[in-house]
């Protein structure tokens, strides 16, 4: 599933530039810019294979931590491919680290600087009626968006005849989190176990 | 709910870093669900209402929203250094875990059980997020817009994003403007009423 590529210094800079641009467009999380990453990295410059792209997202979803880390896994795969193109050996791990650093810095720094500045300003003016109205007005929408994310994730396996056990698992997890204080790690482990045994 | 107890705050930057690291390592399929439970219910660094409000801001800014939240909380307690520490705590350990998993999965990715486990975890992760959303509904009780408007806005954004799959930016622009505008009117009305009762009390004494 890997492919050998040759990356020049200018190519690495282009990679950085791509993620810097996407960073400021990523309203609602970096995952909303994934289609554009696919267009560029897979279809246009061929630095990633389709399999690597999909695996990057699925792995970050399954791993603990913020979903944004799918970007790091993409950088890691690009470095791996570049390492193969450079003849492999000790260069490969170095290029993989370079890939992780470039993609993560690119996607993180611009949006974080903007958020830092804007939220400071909002906090200083938190008693202004406009800021209070914004926060109160957005609260129910945030709940709607949470339920939307759950809906989109839960209905990705889209063949009810085969996938109904997955839907049941999602609903049970929903009820347990809503109504009890059971630790979420147990639920995730139960899902992994049942799935691994082929029951889901 | 222990919501009547006083709020606490992180003791030091180390506490912040360790708390966010532990939090991030427990968050499968996204950290949001666990963030709400840990920060609001266990550590009591913020109330449900505050969480919803901060989350709204973190959500509207570009970038990963849970990172934005870590940045805001860190900044609130320890300034710029706190913001950096918060983000570092959220990212460092999980980064190593996910890269380790990428390497390990590369060796078993064709196995049936590995794909099944990935699917099962995905289904549960969806449930965790849905349960968190349902739980936060109780925080809307103190919202100045009152229930019918809140339900309409929540359902509206759900329909737009989940069912019609419209671009998030447009859904947020429309529902966000409606919500902010309506909340503004209600807050202004409350302020007017408060002034009115104050005047009445003053004139009666």
Structural features, described:
The complex is a heterodimer of chains A (200) and B (205). With 200 residues, chain A is an all-alpha fold. Chain A has two domains: 9-120, no CATH class; 155-196, no CATH class. Helices cover 75% and strands 0% of the residues of chain A. Chain A has eight helices and no strands. The radius of gyration of chain A is 20 Å and the shape is flat. The model of chain A has no long low-confidence stretch (mean pLDDT 88). With 205 residues, chain B is mostly helical. Chain B has two domains: 1-142, no CATH class; 143-205. Chain B contains seven helices and no strands. The longest helix of chain B is centred in the middle third of the chain and has 44 residues, at 65-108. The interface between A and B is large, with 97 and 107 residues.
Task: Spell out the key features of this protein.
heterodimer; A: 200 residues; mainly alpha; 2 domains; 0% strand; flat; B: 205 residues; 7 helices; 79% helix; globular
The main pleated sheet of chain B reads as: none
Helix coverage percent of residues of chain A? over 70%
Total E-strand runs of chain A? 0
**N-end to C-end Cα span of chain A:** 27 Å
Average predicted confidence as pLDDT of chain B: 88
Number of domains of chain B: 2
Structural class of chain B: mainly alpha
Tell me the Rg of chain B in angstroms.
21 Å
As a percent range, the share of strand residues of chain B is under 5%
């Amino acid at each position: 599933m890997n492919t050998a590529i040759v990356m020049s210094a200018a190519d690495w800079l282009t990679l950085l530039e791509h993620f810097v641009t996407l960073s400021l467009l990523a309203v609602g999380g970096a995952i909303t810019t994934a289609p554009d990453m696919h267009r560029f990295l897979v279809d246009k410059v061929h630095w990633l294979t389709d399999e690597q792209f999909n695996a990057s997202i699925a792995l970050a979803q399954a791993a603990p931590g913020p979903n944004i880390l799918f970007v790091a896994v993409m950088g890691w795969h690009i470095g791996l491919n570049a390492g193969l193109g450079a003849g492999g050996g000790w260069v490969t791990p170095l290029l993989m680290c370079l890939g992780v650093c470039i993609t993560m810095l690119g996607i993180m720094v611009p949006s974080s600087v903007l958020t830092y500045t804007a939220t400071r300003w909002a906090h200083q003016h938190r008693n202004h009626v406009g800021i209070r109205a914004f926060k109160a007005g957005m609260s129910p929408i945030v709940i709607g968006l949470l339920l939307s994310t759950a809906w989109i994730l839960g209905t990705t396996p889209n063949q009810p005849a085969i996938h109904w056990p997955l839907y049941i698992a999602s609903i049970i997890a929903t009820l347990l989190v809503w109504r009890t204080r059971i630790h979420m790690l147990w639920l995730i482990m139960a899902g992994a176990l049942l799935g691994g045994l082929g029951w889901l | 709910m222990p919501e009547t107890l006083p709020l606490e705050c992180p003791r030091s930057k180390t506490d912040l870093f360790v708390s966010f690291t532990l939090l991030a390592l427990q968050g499968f399929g996204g950290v949001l669900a666990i963030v709400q439970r840990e920060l609001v219910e266990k550590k009591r660094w913020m109330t449900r209402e505050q969480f919803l409000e901060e989350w709204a801001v973190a959500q509207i800014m570009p970038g990963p929203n849970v990172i934005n939240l870590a940045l805001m909380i860190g900044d609130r307690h320890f300034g710029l250094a706190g913001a950096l520490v918060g983000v570092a705590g959220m990212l460092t350990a999980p980064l190593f875990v996910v890269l380790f998993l990428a390497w390990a999965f590369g060796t078993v990715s064709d196995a049936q059980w590995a794909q099944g486990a990935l699917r099962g975890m995905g289904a549960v992760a969806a449930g965790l997020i849905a349960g968190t959303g349902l739980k936060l509904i109780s925080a809307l009780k103190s919202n100045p817009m009152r229930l019918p408007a809140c339900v309409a806005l929540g359902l509206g954004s759900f329909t737009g994003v989940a069912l019609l799959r419209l671009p998030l930016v447009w859904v947020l622009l429309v529902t966000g403007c409606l919500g902010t505008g309506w909340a503004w009117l209600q807050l202004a009305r409350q302020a007017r009423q408060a002034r009115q009762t104050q005047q009445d009390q003053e004139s009666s004494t």
